[in-house]
Amino acid sequence: MSTDKPFRRINELVAALAAADKGLTSGALGADGLEAACDDARELYERLIVLRHKAREAQVGGQAVEAPPTKAPQNTMREPALPTVPEERSVRLDTRPPAEPAARQTSLIDAIEHTEKQEPAKAPAAHGAPEAAAKMAPSVAEKLEKAAVADLGKAISLSHKFWFVAELFNGDRISYEKSIEQLNAFNDLAEANAFIAAEVVGKLKKPADPEALATFNELVERRYA
Q1: Looking at the structure, do residues 55 and 145 belong to the same domain, yes or no?
Q2: Residue 11 dihedral angles phi and psi, to the nearest 5°
Q3: d(Cα 12, Cα 222) in Å, to the nearest integer?
Q4: Quick one: 112 and 31 in the same domain?
Q5: Does one domain contain both 112 and 25?
Q6: What angle do CA 112, 116, 119 make, to 5 degrees?
Q7: What is the percentage of the chain residues whose pLDDT exceeds 90?
Q8: Of the candidates 171, 170, 161, which has an alpha carbon nearest to the alpha carbon of residue 206?
Q9: Do residues 59 and 35 lie in contact, with contact meaning Cβ atoms separated by under 8 Å?
Q10: How large is the greatest C-alpha to C-alpha distance in the chain, in angstroms?
Q11: How confident is the model at residue 9 (pLDDT cuts 50, 70, 90)?
Q12: Is there a domain that residue 131 lies in?
């Protein structure tokens, strides 16, 4: 994945997508144009996700100050005092992706191809073999979770990508992209683990989120399975 793509503002991305829509409607948008439109839409979505999180973080950080109480007119009922606003606390933004399978990024075709290469399990000879075989046989979902991946960039969903960038790469998307390229190119898992320890965890400005790191390591292990 190239990281030399020039930066474009949101309005430029919107204009490019509008032009692609016109080409798609008129039938003039070819395969290359459709691929470029997909990239533009993905970049626009990621940019909007970042802005949404920043907006939420600003809302959490800005605490309303309680107005001083005003004197109630005589012979009228005084309204109950509002609860005092607690002191501002340091809040860590939850960057975890919404509830979805963390590792089910391999396509069904890849999973089937991977499992077909494995030696078929022998059926139990004892009485009640069909029930035992049904319990022992892994489900399609379990196969997807453990299947090897050929490209980390394609195996990581957009929501997990944002999660990893925020928790493991100090919010630096370029550093994330370069690290994924390098993790795809190592000879074995030992080299990949050494890189993660030195260049990912070793360069964090805050302790790594255990859940994010465990999910990231699992995907890397599947890359070299």
Answers
A1: no
A2: -65, -30
A3: 38
A4: no
A5: no
A6: 145
A7: 32
A8: 170
A9: no
A10: 92
A11: confident
A12: no
For residues 65 and 45, the answer to whether their CB atoms sit within 8 Å is no
Which are the contacts of 149, defined by CB distance < 8 A and separation ≥ 6? Answer: 105, 106, 110, 155, 219, 222, 223
Residue 205 shares a structural domain with residue 142: yes
CB 218 within 8 A of CB 147: no
Lowest mean pLDDT among 62-66, 145-149, 159-163, 212-216: 62-66
93: which DSSP letter? Answer: -
Number of domains in the chain: 2
What range does the domain containing 194 cover?
Answer: 108-116+136-223
Q: 184, 153 in Cβ contact below 8 A?
A: yes
Query: Would the CA dihedral through 94, 99, 105, 111 be positive or negative?
Result: positive
Task: Give the residue with greater pLDDT, 72 vs 212.
Answer: 212
pLDDT in tens, 202-211: 999 999 999 9
What distance in Å separates the CA atoms of residue 204 and residue 207, rounded to the nearest whole number? 7
Position 197 in a domain: yes
Residue 1 has pLDDT above 50, yes or no: no
